[in-house]
Design goal:
With about 300 residues, this protein is of the alpha/beta class. The longest helix has 20 residues. Strands 3-2-1-8-7-6-5-4 form an eight-stranded parallel beta sheet. It contains ten helices and eight strands. Helix 5 packs across helix 6. The protein has one domain: TIM Barrel.
């Protein structure tokens, strides 16, 4: 069949556009895994690099000595050959979002973190919302949390950073009631979401269904697996276990999360963002080996391209 000049030019333009389009998925790993990585962040980065990852996520408490000298930290990262997905909040920052008396310091601390990670080219900030109290999270707590998150998200947007809140078992922001409230009472353009497939499953929620509900509001996925019997959402709430003796989260492919269905949905809506492997503990093998297992699953079972890593 003869190709006309016009058809050739249209095809060439389409190919050029496809090449110019940003990669749909970017893959990384959170490296504070108990069992060998938790006490030496630079060791964790080196071993993650050896396992095939060039994008790493961590927590600010590892980097307090670099608050005022980010160039020195960037030099360390460049030497290892990794870059940040993002850096999460935590001690020594204020994280009691439910307490209005602490909001002024909370905002100052998180804006400082936002400017810090912007130096490294990060465009979103994943945060946890503080430890869960014995009284759990009340309606009044949720009101205060939504108010300060909206304010923080708006201020971070002005700095070019997207706020993304992480629902986490045993924290103030854990279950479907709390997720629904904060999503409904904040502006989607100011407050995004980090969907952790393990924590969401153990909170009794189907992560695939939640991904369908939240769609492009999700800035990042934390990719971890659970026991097969928890697929679709655990039937009862789990008290926090000893993660080294009785882990509830596993490397990808363990069977508790329907990752192929999740990937199919993300493909269908053209979602773009971070797929960040995370494993809270690795008691049965070195963290580097668990990291390799999850990377292999992303590559071979989900079809994530090598260049995403």
């Amino acid at each position: 069949m003869t190709t006309t000049r016009r058809e050739f030019l249209l095809a060439a333009a389409g190919a050029a556009g496809a090449m110019a389009a940003p990669a749909r998925y970017r893959a990384g790993i959170t490296t504070n895994t108990r069992g060998g990585w938790e006490s030496d962040v630079f060791l964790s980065f080196r071993e993650a690099r050896e396992a095939g990852y060039t994008n790493v996520e961590s927590f600010i408490h590892y980097f307090v000595d670099f608050w005022e000298k980010p160039a020195e930290l960037k030099s360390r990262l460049d030497e290892i050959g990794v870059r940040f997905v993002t850096v999460s909040n935590g001690a020594p920052m204020e994280v009691h979002f439910e307490d209005p008396a602490r909001h002024e310091k909370l905002l100052a601390d998180h804006m400082r973190l936002g400017r810090f990670i912007r130096y490294f080219g990060c465009n979103h900030m994943k945060i946890n919302l503080g430890p869960r109290r014995p009284t759990a999270t009340t309606a009044e707590d949720l009101k205060h949390m939504s108010e300060v998150l909206e304010k923080l998200g708006r201020q971070l947007k002005g700095e070019g950073i997207r706020l993304a809140i992480h629902a986490h078992m045993w924290n103030q922001f854990e279950n479907r009631r709390e997720i629904d409230y904060l999503m409904e009472h904040t502006d989607a353009s100011h407050v995004g979401f980090v969907l952790d497939t393990g924590h969401i499953t153990m909170a009794g929620i189907d992560p695939v269904e939640l991904a369908r509900t939240l769609g492009h509001r999700i800035a990042e996925f934390h990719m971890k697996d659970t026991k097969p019997e928890h697929r679709g959402g655990a039937r009862q709430r789990l008290d926090r276990p000893d993660m080294m003796k009785d882990p509830c989260f596993f490397a990808l492919g363990h069977g508790g999360v329907d990752f192929p269905a999740l990937k199919k949905h993300l493909d269908s809506i053209g979602w773009q963002g971070w797929l960040t492997v995370e494993l809270d503990s690795s008691p049965m093998r070195p963290p580097k080996e668990s990291a390799r297992i999850s990377r292999s699953y992303l590559l071979n079972s989900l079809g994530i391209p090598r260049e995403a890593f």
